[in-house]
Structure formats: C-alpha cells, structure tokens
Write a structure and sequence with these properties.
single chain; about 475 residues; alpha/beta; Rossmann fold; four-stranded mixed sheet; 10 strands; about 55% helix; about 10% strand
Length: about 475
C-alpha cells in the first residue's frame, strides 16, 4: 500500500475529521452561493478575469521583465529564484545581511511551497505565522489543510486544547472570541519583535510595479509595515498586466474563497517607506519563483494551470477532498488544483498518484471562477502518465475486449447475461480493485430486458394505444 493510500484510509477512519470537513465545506459552498446574487454581473467579471489570466502564458516573459523594471523603479529589490532551493538561499542571504533573528509571516502559499519555516529554523531564525489559521497549524506542527482556511480540519475543542498545551492558556472551547484573543495576544508581541515581515502576493501589476495582498485579519498589513524589512514571495504566475483587471479578480476571489462580497483588507504595496513617511518598511524585496512554472506555460494542453487565482473553490466543491481533506494529498496544494499543479511542479513522478483521487464528476471545473477546465487537465495528465509507462499486454487485452463487446449488440447482451452468474463479478473485480471501490452488484434484469418487457406490456394495453 502506498503512503497516499495509507493517508486516505487514515482520513476516512477518523470520524472527527470527516465531521469537521463536512461542516466546513457545506458552510463555504453555502456562503459562496449566497454571495453571487447578480449572475450577469458575476459573468461580466468572470469574462474579464478569464481573458486576463488565460492570456498569461503567452505574455509571461514580457510581463515579468516589465514587473522587474517597475518594481526596481519603485525601490523594490527584485530577486529571481529558479526553484525552491534558490528561493531559500536568497531569503537567507537577505536575513543574514540584516542580522535578522525573528521573522513574522503573513499568509503565503509560495513560502509553504519552498518550506521556508523549516529552512529558517535550521539556521537559527525564528519564523512565526501570523494568519490565525496558519498559526494554529504551526502550533500543531502540521501543514495547512486548505489554501484559504489552513485549519478548517480542526474544531473549536481541538483548538482550545492546542492553546492550553502550547501556549499555557486556559482556553474556553465555547468562546470563539476568547480563542482569537489568545492568538492575538501572542502575535502582537511577535509583530513588535520581528526583524523581517514576509508576505505572499495575490497579484503583481507589471505596469505599475504594485504588489496586491488580500486578507481578512490585518496580520498581512502588520507583517508588511511594522518590521523594517519586508520580503514578498510570489510565483511567476501571479503577474497581471496592470491594475485595470484587479476589481474583477477581487470580485471573483473573495466570493469564491470565503463567500464575502469584499475582503476586509486590500493592500497595494508599491515600494519601501519614503523619507517623509512615518511608517512602513525601510526595504522591500520581491522573490519571484519559477519552480517548474515555465515548463507548465510551455505546454498548450496544461498552460491554463497558471490561470489559477488560489481561491480554493475547486476544493470546496470536490467530493473527494470533502471526504479526505488536504493532508491526505501530502502536497502544498491539495484538491483538484493540487492534482493538476503538483505533478507538474515536481516533474510528474512523485505526485502522479494524486491523479487517481478524482471521479471526473466535473464539479471543480464548474466552480472555477476563471474557467480552468480542471477535469480535462486531469485526463490529460493521466494520458501522459499512461503514455510514459511500459505497455501492459494484459491491460491492452482488456480494453480490446471492452471495445469489441460495446461494438456488438449480441456480444454486449451475452456479456450482460454472464455478469449475472454468481461469483463471476468477484473474479473480474479482484480484491486490489475493490479496496477503493464498491464491488458492482449485477441487477436482476438488464436494461434491454426491462425496456422489452415494458414495450410488450404497452403494446398489449388497449388504453395505452388509445392514449
């Protein structure tokens, strides 16, 4: 049994996790549905955002060059990272140059992707997550379970117990405000002590060199303004031509992610503190991460992967994710988008197995606010995986037989009758196949037999003929 299968079984056998996930998914889907009151307006913004994001792969080199020029003009120091190792080295060099010992982080999936916290701790630098969900996950020594709500796999009782153990606080599980207050009290001190503030980037406007950060807690604003040094980390796919499409992107992002009409904080950062300004960082660095994204952009069938705005809607609507949660995937990006992007980022070997965790029901594609055809991409990656594997004679024979049966009505009927023979289905569907699936039970009558019986009955019924 593979580690992925073991994680799936563990998730399915944990009732509390299943209950937490079910409640969170129902809540997020309901809020999203209620937030889309004017469908015509939604579609208008969706068309604008889809055009901008799907045009990205062709425009990527020019936009990135323009972004670097604009950011440099604004006083932002730009660094290029080919992979996660490069990004970690660059960050550490900046930290050591400023004699930093403490880092405070706003929410950043790119920093999760490069495993920044672990790297900093190995070099004696304390790194604290300031997003409440990320802070909870960090205290539990876990990875985020969701790209928008990292701790949605935990309920209030579990969080209270965690605060009692890790923070030595008498937390009341029934009082959400108290739980939030405990976290805030700890984080306020961390903001004051931090030498470097870290953030992700939701969108980066190439023309103006503006970094856009979207958040709800204010922690992102504190992380980027209180410490003297701000380091932003973004994948190359976060660039947009200019700020003109930002209203449409934010309209879709907030509704798809949390069901809000507008997010609490939209931060637009265009440079470090100016001489006549009272607050803000003295220096701003931007680490632009490739880590396999250039290869994705060059594949016509999969380039639309980069259009993703990281709203998490595909996860919230995925029946598989809803059952097993994000940790079962074992990747930075779980759910449908994780199934598509993870195999591409690491070369297609390590996470190819994720492609099996999909029923191709199409819910993720329908939920995507920028019209990424995720089911088609999963099929494409499955095809690529099959093409790269050695030919299996037995598998080929099975598919040839399947084709022959479905091309011949007589052969199809004969096979349907044979399937009703007791014990035959257990031979055709071995234990390995039924470990993750329910063994099919043949019906008492075939569809053809039922239709034929109904037709004969109707033909004999005078009232039916009169009707």
């Amino acid at each position: 049994m593979t580690p992925f299968n073991e994680r799936i079984i563990e998730a399915l056998e944990t009732p509390e996790l299943r209950s937490n996930l079910r409640g969170a998914m129902d809540f997020l889907r309901s809020k999203r549905s209620l937030s889309i009151e004017d469908y015509a307006l939604w579609q208008q913004h969706q068309d604008i955002a889809t055009d901008v994001r799907h045009a990205l792969p062709q425009q990527l080199p020019e936009l990135l060059e323009q972004l670097e020029q604009s950011c440099t003009r604004n006083g932002i120091e730009v660094h290029w990272a080919a992979d996660a190792s490069d990004a970690r080295k660059i960050f550490l060099q900046i930290a050591q140059a400023t004699n930093a010992t403490r880092v405070i982080k706003g929410k950043s999936m790119a920093s999760e992707e490069i495993e920044l916290n672990t790297h900093l701790e190995q070099h004696g630098i304390e790194s604290t997550e300031s997003d409440m969900g990320e802070f909870i996950v960090q205290l539990a020594n876990e990875k985020p379970s969701h790209i928008i709500m990292p701790a949605l796999h935990k309920n209030q009782e579990q969080i209270a117990e965690l605060f009692n153990q890790k923070l030595n606080e008498k937390a009341d599980a029934s009082d959400v405000d108290q739980l939030i207050g405990i976290g805030r009290k700890v984080l306020r001190e961390k903001f004051k002590q931090a030498d470097i503030g870290v953030s992700g980037v939701n969108f980066a406007a190439a023309k103006s060199g503006t970094l856009c950060l979207v958040e709800n807690e204010g922690n992102g604003r504190l992380s980027t303004s209180v410490p003297n040094c701000h380091i932003a980390i973004m994948g190359i796919d976060k660039v947009i031509p200019d700020l003109s499409s930002l209203p449409s992107l934010l309209y879709l992002l907030t509704r798809s992610a949390t069901g809000q009409e507008i997010t609490s904080y939209v931060n637009l950062i265009s440079g470090p503190r100016k001489p006549d300004e009272l607050d803000g960082p003295k220096s701003v660095h931007l680490i632009i991460l490739d880590n396999g994204r250039s290869s994705i952009a060059s594949d016509p069938a999969l380039a639309a992967t980069l259009a993703c705005i990281r709203c998490g809607a595909c996860m919230n609507h995925c029946p598989v994710y809803t059952k097993i949660g994000g940790h079962a995937y074992g990747t930075t990006y779980p759910g449908p988008i994780g199934q598509v992007i993870s195999p591409q980022l690491d070369g297609g070997e390590e996470h190819n197995e994720l492609l099996n965790a999909c029923s191709l029901n199409g819910a993720c594609g329908e939920a995507c606010p920028v019209n990424i055809e995720l089911p088609d991409m999963i099929r494409e990656l499955r095809n690529q995986r099959s093409a790269a594997q050695p030919n299996h004679t037995g598998e080929k024979m099975v598919w040839h037989a399947w084709r022959a049966i479905h091309q011949s009505p007589r052969l199809y009927q004969l096979t349907s009758l044979m399937m009703r023979i007791p014990g035959l289905s257990s031979l055709l569907f071995p234990r390995r196949w039924t470990k993750g699936r329910t063994s099919p039970t043949p019906a008492n009558n075939t569809l053809h037999a039922l239709i034929k019986a109904k037709t004969n009955h109707d033909n004999r019924d005078p009232q039916h003929e009169h009707k």
